[in-house]
Amino acid sequence: MKKRSHSLTCPTVWLLWLLLVSGVSQAAIFSTIVTNGPATNRVNLVFFAEGYTNGELAAFLNDATNAANDFLSAAPYSEYSNYFNVFAVFTNSAHTGSTHLISQSYAHGFTYFNSSYDDSSDYYITIPPNTVDANPAHGQGEINSLLWTNYRSILLSTNNNLPALLVNDPVDGGSDGGSSDYGRTAISSIGNVGYILVHESGHTLGGLGDEYTLAYPGYSTNDDEPNTTVQTNLADIKWKAWVADGTPLPTPLLIDYEDAVGLFVGAHYHTNGWYRPSENCCMQSFGVGFCPVCQEALVLAIYGKVRPIDQRQPATNSLTVTSPQKLSFSLSLLQPATHALSVQWRTNGVAVGGATNPALDLWPAQLGNGTKTVEADVWDATGLVRTDTGNVLKQTNLWTLSVALPVLQIDSLEWLANGCFSLRVTGSAPAGVVIQLSTNLTQWLAVQTGALSGGKWFYTNAGAAAAPKRFFRAATPP
Length: 478
Description:
CATH topology of the largest domain: Collagenase (Catalytic Domain)
Largest sheet: 7 strands, mixed
Strand content: 25-35%
Radius of gyration: 32 Å
CATH class of the largest domain: Alpha Beta
């Protein structure tokens, strides 16, 4: 499949908001980098500026735009780039960069979000609460305040937001924020941001685990993630749908399996006892893309926040139908980059043959009177997902119709003298009845209108010039 290219440009119009943060007046600038739709139905990637000083707004927006380009070019995000909006929030720091605890002492207020590189590894960046500052208000709390309080009127839904802290420091570093109790933020320095940000989003968006095999001092979490396991029995492996028949478990590091999904020893900061699905993956190795299992987890995470139906017409799901005129139903779908979503329409629970487009026209008479349903099933048949236990790739919109169409019947037909006749119309027609005639059953001419009285109405053409080969019918007014 041809991968669509993405190129975002730095915005020229910025929306400025004055915010009060931690009791200190700060000028925060909210910018839109790219919008693909309403914030309520998109994953909103929001960049926050860390270590950018006064006057570096343009540099931050340029860095954020480049980072967004890198992010949306990485699979599977490239396939679902339309599912993302990208925003940026600038707050100036007192100093450039971040605190390097290997050579510096921590000082609150050095940067806006008080980020720091780890004292034992100048690669791991965190914000409070962390080992040097337990106060969440100095770090993650600041992001929560900006994101969930001040910009709630813009971003609307906190569930859809994906915060990312962009650290103005050339030394490679990052983390997933590490504080699930107060929220999680993907953190990346501007050094190698294209890889680090994508890797950290695997944690914060997809809930993926690190596949590193080297021990990390103090790391004690031993929870299974979508891409890590201690299981060796195929039936118990979460990604068993991706394991080809005949693949040995555990899977040896041989050239025959370098592109296979299997059970490779080493993950979760363990050299043994823990397993990963691929020999190489973005969750383990620099410069490598996500493996199929991790891509599946990320696609499912995206659909956990975004629904494939953007809009529907009619907008209301409960309709009262009293006119025989044609009904039109339509969907505005959020399409992936290189494949189309699948659609199936149903009426009264039965699939309509050939109705696989985002629009459906039908006549109410096809449904019949009473409580009826029109249903649109939409799903993503992507090959990136093989196991969707939560059924998040599918969305159904159901319209319930109360159909009360006029029902007319002609009886008591009687021939009169000179080729004339009389008939009785019975049934229900709140809007009245019209008698129509035709010579070819195609073109109809109204000759008389009337109303039912007690459920009936008598019509005669007596007094009118009789003519052969004419057809008559009773109908409701158009």
